[in-house]
Amino acid sequence: MAFYYKEPSHTFGEYLLVPGYSSDKCIPANVSLKTPLTKFKKGEEPALSLNIPMVSAIMQAVSDDRMAIALAKEGGLSFLYGSQTPEQEAQMVKKVKSYKSGFVSSDSNIKPTTTLGEILALKEVTGHSTMAVTEDGTPTGKLLGIVTSRDYRVTRMSMDTPVSEFMTPFEKLVYADAGTTLTEANDIIWESKLNMLPLVDKNQRLMYMVFRKDYTEDKEFENQLIDENKRYRVGAGINTRDYAERVPLLLDAGVDALCIDSSEGYSEWQRITLDYIHKKFGPEVKVGAGNVVDREGFLFLAKAGADFVKVGIGGGSICITRETKGIGRGQATALIDVCQARDEYYKETGIYVPVCSDGGIVHDYHITLALAMGADFMMLGRYFSRFDESPTNKVKLNGTFYKEYWGEGSNRARNWQRYDLGGASKLSFEEGVDSYVPYAGPLHDNVGITLSKVRSTMCNCGALNIKELQDKAKLTLVSSVSIVEGGSHDVIPRDQFTSR
Ligand code: RVP
């Protein structure tokens, strides 16, 4: 006879936190959101931690190198999407690892023969008016000059004029050596009243450009997630089919953590993949696994050597797995069950395996609930897809801006490896939708607001860090009537009158 769970499974929207005592030390500025990313032994530190409990989803519409840099600046981590060739994914890893904060590689290189007309067309595409002129037109060619919009008058000059006639030539440029630090570069920028300082090697080849505005921006990111060489950390999604080919390329590119991306992780394929990677490359290579929704699934992956375990089936905003296949579990119940198993496993073995709650975060407070329920960090797709830094198009529909967002199980992504159960190499039916989400602006501003809400609620619960929240939190299920009570009710919003 089938097994029946005694209780229905619930999701975040059905829970609330009941405040606890807050001392006078309990202020948002004192809250630390640092959290483990990978497993560790009792009394030891995890090899990898996050400075904020947020990672971005392994999805084409969410995590590319641009998102990875923006999120690492905030203290989180992106897992680059795996539904691309191993070479393309490794290239993305390289882009993140070679990115030097404040040091920009030229993206609009031109040759001395490039005409004014071509420069204007390029400016339209890149949005950048400062361009480096190199001998061969490559980003690291011999620097011959710089052109900015102050060097030409569109109304007075012929569109055929070559840039060599109006650029500032190298001899007249203020430049610095490639080894210059950001602080030194900034000093030169201020002393010489520049907007941009080119850094060149001993053969006059262009290495980087440092812009005045980037230095001030860099000061804003105090939580940055960086490695021992001050490079941004980045993760990458892998699958249970081509890991033997993909993983070495990602490791060569400098990836910091891997995660097996699958809609259903309680499977022999995951055990084989974890085993292969840890035997071949050693335990220092960190691999998360999932997704699971109960204690058996968690224990299976923990024993198979997963460095963290991801929880969630069917709760993603673009996910229709529950409707198409009838499998899944309410995200809150799944998370609570798995986190209890994680704590018992820790007591028995002394090994703490971090848990990631994946999908279904709708409101900012759901993050605090998930942390209180035992999650160490969240994976978010819809949340990040709304920002400037996500890889998708921003479109205007009926006067409002949206970003595109599609599931990995949709026909658009065609990520059959994520839904692979062995057998044919194809997506037999869709488990995800292709959609739009309201555009929300820059990641930095939004993450700032979200985390200030998280810190504030933690203070209400008397917690100055995530572990303390998990120990002290008091959670209550709410009835559907009290959910109504939680919104504004029995009043007429003023904006119903002001528009008349
Ligand atoms: P959300 O943050 O609610 O948008 O959910 C994102 C999660 O949804 C992903 O991390 C992944 O686990 C899941 N996903 C991605 N694609 C699909 C699908 O097509 N069904 N589901």
Automatic annotation (TrEMBL):
Q: Which PROSITE patterns match?
A: CBS, IMP_DH_GMP_RED
Q: Which UniProt keywords apply?
A: CBS domain, GMP biosynthesis, Metal-binding, NAD, Oxidoreductase, Potassium, Purine biosynthesis
Q: Which GO terms describe its molecular function?
A: IMP dehydrogenase activity; metal ion binding
Cofactor annotation = K(+)
- Taking every annotated instance into account, which residue ranges of this chain make up the domain CBS? 167-225
Q: Where is the signal peptide?
A: none
Residues noted as binding NAD(+) in the record, renumbered to the chain? D261, S262, S263, G312, I313, G314
Which PANTHER family is this protein grouped with?
INOSINE-5'-MONOPHOSPHATE DEHYDROGENASE, INOSINE-5-MONOPHOSPHATE DEHYDROGENASE RELATED
Membership in a protein family = Belongs to the IMPDH/GMPR family.
Report the protein name in the record. Answer: IMP dehydrogenase
Question: Which organism encodes this protein?
Answer: Schwartzia succinivorans DSM 10502
Highest lineage ranks of the organism?
Bacteria, Bacillati, Bacillota, Negativicutes, Selenomonadales
